[in-house]
Amino acid sequence: MSGRTVTIAQVAKHAGVAVSTVSYVLSGKRTISADTRRRVLDSISALGYHPNAGARALASKRSNVIALVLPLRAGMHVPVLMRFASAVVTAARRFDHDVLLLTADEGTDGIHRVAASALVDALVLMDVELDDRRVPLLRELPEPSVLIGFPAEPAGLTCVDLDFAAAGARCVQHLAERGHDEIALLGAPSVVYDRGTGFATRTREGFVAAVDDHGLKGVTLPCEDTFDEVYETVRDLLLDRPGLSGLVVHNEAAVGHVLAALRQLGRRVPHDMAVVAICPDDVAERAGPPLTSVLIPAEEVGREAVRLVMDKLEGRAVPDSTLLTPLLAVRAST
Amino acid sequence: MSGRTVTIAQVAKHAGVAVSTVSYVLSGKRTISADTRRRVLDSISALGYHPNAGARALASKRSNVIALVLPLRAGMHVPVLMRFASAVVTAARRFDHDVLLLTADEGTDGIHRVAASALVDALVLMDVELDDRRVPLLRELPEPSVLIGFPAEPAGLTCVDLDFAAAGARCVQHLAERGHDEIALLGAPSVVYDRGTGFATRTREGFVAAVDDHGLKGVTLPCEDTFDEVYETVRDLLLDRPGLSGLVVHNEAAVGHVLAALRQLGRRVPHDMAVVAICPDDVAERAGPPLTSVLIPAEEVGREAVRLVMDKLEGRAVPDSTLLTPLLAVRAST
DNA sequence: GCCGGTCGTCGAAGCGCTTCGACACTCTCA
DNA sequence: TGAGAGTGTCGAAGCGCTTCGACGACCGGC
After folding, report:
1. CA B258 from chain center: how many Å?
2. Quick one: average pLDDT of B70-79?
3. Fewest CB atoms within 10 Å of the CB: B3, B118, B165, B308?
4. If phi over 0 gives left and psi between -120 and 50 gives alpha, with beta otherwise, what is residue A3?
5. In a domain? residue B211
6. What are the chain B neighbours of A117 within 8 Å (beta carbons)?
7. Which residues in chain A belong to E strands, given as ranges?
8. Whole-number Å distance between alpha carbons of A92 and A79
9. What gap in Å lies between CA A66 and CA B58, rounded to an integer?
């Protein structure tokens, strides 16, 4: 405890050492005797010293802040975003960094601004589109960046994501093993496909390819978020495809509606219809019945993105592309 | 465009003026002739100058960053949080500030750290609980702060929120005007009440008081998020209260389930049961049928919080308590 | 034609930190 | 015993900006 802001000079005086010695104790960049280190640390806590972030950034050219660029757009399922964001913040803290929040509606200007003003050392971008206008800027930026999601042309960038193609395929494989031979994929709202968002498209591709490989019959449909639209989609699907016995749902917001619609349409899960979801674990577990699912490992993706960006900051080489292997958890719905 | 980081000294040289003159052009704190100003601004854009945030913070003792402390806890409806967050970022940018994201799981340490290190100038806290452990810290902090939500003891703090008591009362009034005399409130999940979260409790109090005032019969129930639990709650409620003809739903996640449950239970909205929701506008509009609702003005609350915190930063006096008046939008459900 | 007031600009002193080179020691090993 | 190689610590030079006091130049009033 103390009156007004404590500086490193006061700590140095209190401990009877030079300012630079305090700095080296803090950074560990030079060896300091155990005795001196102890005295300095004691003084730091006695005075309640916290290094001034601005001064540190100015002198060291490192702000210890990373930018998190969020989209906040229609069609994204927000709770998932939030979990990413939370994971990024937590992971960043473990590297002694803080997180500056940028929303995409400031456009590329915001990115340029925080980078040019040295407000942040690095950037993590979420919800990257296939044709993302932020991507060209990132290529020119001296600050390192990591994308969560894949643009169409990821050369020269570092990207992390769940391997959605593998996830789609994994669901098909599971249904095939269970003996289903006519299955469907209910995906994201059509606006998401229109925008060319990578994860939706890649899941569909993985699904289609796996259906071929296993010699099944399969169809893929977009799927909106509201109950009424979901109900119609499911009803029409059942009419069109009487032999359908397996469903893959890749739309977190619609999962509950799909189950409700099946119930109203007299189909029991899993008896009349097997359902596999691609969604966060808690959503799958809370559903009735609990759903067999490929989980979206938001925490892991966020953590990995931060790890990569820190590696780049330290000048270590990182892979261009990191795809996290999907894991299928079998529950009551298949 | 230029090679590596441009400094104010280079701008000054390029424009043929002193460094301090450039600074005054940027800050407007001293009068500068139109001619000089023009030359300086030209040089700035010619060189692509961006002031270094760290240096600026160090010299001016202002980082131009505010902290946004998010809870990220169970029971909170995340999309609403996101809209607050987005509104705060947008509003902050209009005051030329950026937003640092803190999650509450770092506890009060994080708040203390960013304040003590002068990383942020001020704080906005979201989802404040009645008995919030962050509140005592805020009282001692020299940095100004604004709470979104109300703690039990708000003395000496600045708080903003929708006037939830008025919102609850407004719904009752509307139903009373429509001639309903036995009504119910379906609220937040019980865990939210147990935690003593202000907005849930205050809505309930407003509801109860208004029911009394209007001489109606009313009951209030917590309401979980999953379809099955909602279904049971609604079913039991209809059995217990055969005369019930009006429902207030203050639980964004459950709104859709309530409507589905009513449908399954053979009640038509609004014919057999009038429904008023307290939720964001888009949720009310997308429901089937579109719901009469009191909207949660996330954008307005976020904007107001930022305005208040900026006022405090400038040393202007602000009211301790800002309650935004609820607005009821009549739609098809009543 | 001189005095007091703006007005516009400049130079320099920090802000609190990191980091570089220097320097006094203490060990080792020839 | 003395050269060489570490250790542990210090002082000072910035990092890029804001802000204060100073100072000409120019104005109007007497």
Report:
1. 25
2. 61
3. B3
4. alpha
5. yes
6. 50-53
7. 65-70, 98-103, 122-125, 145-148, 159-162, 182-186, 217-221, 246-249, 274-278, 292-294, 321-324, 328-329
8. 20
9. 19
CB of A2 within 8 Å of a chain B CB? The answer is: no
pLDDT in tens, B2-42: 447 899 999 999 999 999 999 999 999 999 999 999 999 99
List the CATH number of the domain containing B28: 1.10.260.40
Q: How confident is the model at residue B75 (pLDDT cuts 50, 70, 90)?
A: very low
Instruction: Supply the pLDDT for residue B125.
Output: 94
Q: What is the pLDDT of residue B72?
A: 62
User: In what helix (H) or strand (E) does residue B161 lie, and over which residues does it extend?
Assistant: strand B159-162
Q: What is the pLDDT of residues B222-245, one digit of tens each?
A: 999 888 899 999 999 999 999 999
Distance B8 CA to C23 C1' (A): 37
What is the structure's pLDDT at B2?
41
Same domain, A134 and A210: no
Pair (B44, B71) in one structural domain: no
With cut-offs at 50, 70 and 90, classify the pLDDT of residue A298.
confident
Q: How many domains does chain A have?
A: 3
**Which CATH number is A306's domain given?**
3.40.50.2300
How many CB pairs lie under 8 A apart between chains A and B? Answer: 128
In this structure, the answer to whether residues A152 and A168 fall within a common structural domain is no
Mean pLDDT of B69-90: 74
Q: Kindly state whether residues B157 and B302 are assigned to the same domain.
A: yes
Domain-embedded: residue A89: yes
Residues B201, B308 share a domain: no
Q: Which helix (H) or strand (E) holds A331?
A: none
Q: Which residues, in sequence order, are CB contacts of A261 under 8 Å at separation 6+?
A: A227, A230, A231, A234, A235
Q: Is residue B144 part of a domain?
A: yes
Of B125, B138, B134, B126, the residue nearest B76 (C-alpha)? B126
Angle, alpha carbons B86-B89-B94 (nearest 5°): 130
Residues 195-234 of A with CB under 8 A from B: 225-228
> Residue A279 belongs to what domain range?
164-294
Task: Verify that B199 and B266 share a domain, yes or no.
Answer: yes
- Alpha-carbon distance of B212 to B195, in angstroms, equals 26
**Which stretch of DSSP H or E encloses residue B293?**
strand B292-294
- CB atoms B53 and A119 under 8 Å: yes
Which residue in A114, A225, A288 is closest to B228 by CB distance?
A: A288
Q: Is residue B134 a part of any domain in this protein?
A: yes
